[in-house]
Write a structure and sequence with these properties.
196 residues, 10% helix, DNA-binding, 9 strands
Length: 196
DNA sequence: GGTGCGATTGCA
DNA sequence: GCAATCGCACCA
């Protein structure tokens, strides 16, 4: 069954690829959110993190499928939204093939609301009014989707370890965070010398 | 049924 | 440096 979507929006195949590749390719694209009233909020994606596969100890999926992580095990192209610290939501885009748990965490946007940037996944979700009602929602639907935006050259992409996953052993060091180098909206890293 | 904690943020 | 705040993973 063919989905109706804007020509500038990627189809399901875009999300069902390798998670790291999809994460990198999401940089520069526009995240779009339509509110119930019809208003559309948009922001350019400038920071993401990949959570890749069942062995990635930084990923919620590393302990197998649970009610919370079920969306991560679906085929790519839907949202995985969860509540963190009882007060913030984190918005992810599920990637890869069905049965392979993977997703890309959206961490920062540029100008989602008329010149206002959001820094950090909790604030990003709040700015676009994304909560668990969108958990499992299709990225090919009417509430949340991605548009082409402005492509980012390889030279402008910087890779670093992910933030806030120090519990993950060697996986904490994998360069799974992708950012537009030097962008002012990037999350601040917890105090830490070297290796960024 | 009870317990511990987190892919964060803001304030002291 | 640390409190806020609650769903859920895990154990009993």
């Amino acid at each position: 069954m063919k989905q109706i979507r804007a020509p500038s929006s990627p189809g399901a195949a875009f999300y069902r690829r390798d998670t790291l590749q999809t994460a990198r390719d999401l940089l520069g694209r526009t995240l779009c959110r339509r509110l119930d009233g019809g208003v559309v909020l948009r922001g350019r994606i400038v920071e993401v993190e990949a959570y890749d596969g069942p062995d990635d100890r930084a990923s919620h999926a590393s302990r197998g499928e649970t009610p919370r992580t079920a969306p991560m095990f679906e085929a790519g192209g839907l949202a995985y939204v969860y509540l963190i610290y009882g007060m913030y939501h984190c918005t992810n885009i599920v990637t890869g093939a069905a049965g392979y748990p993977a997703a890309v965490l959206l961490r920062a946007l540029e100008s989602p609301l008329e010149g206002i940037s959001t820094s950090g996944p909790g604030r990003l979700s709040r700015a676009l009014e994304i909560d668990r009602s969108l958990d499992g929602a299709s990225l090919l639907g009417r509430s949340l989707w991605v548009e082409r935006g402005s492509p980012v050259a390889d030279g402008a992409v910087r890779r670093t370890p992910r933030i806030g996953v120090d519990y993950a052993g060697r996986w904490a060091k994998e360069p799974y965070r992708f950012v537009i180098d030097g962008h002012p909206a990037l999350s601040k890293r917890p105090a830490r010398r070297r290796s960024d």
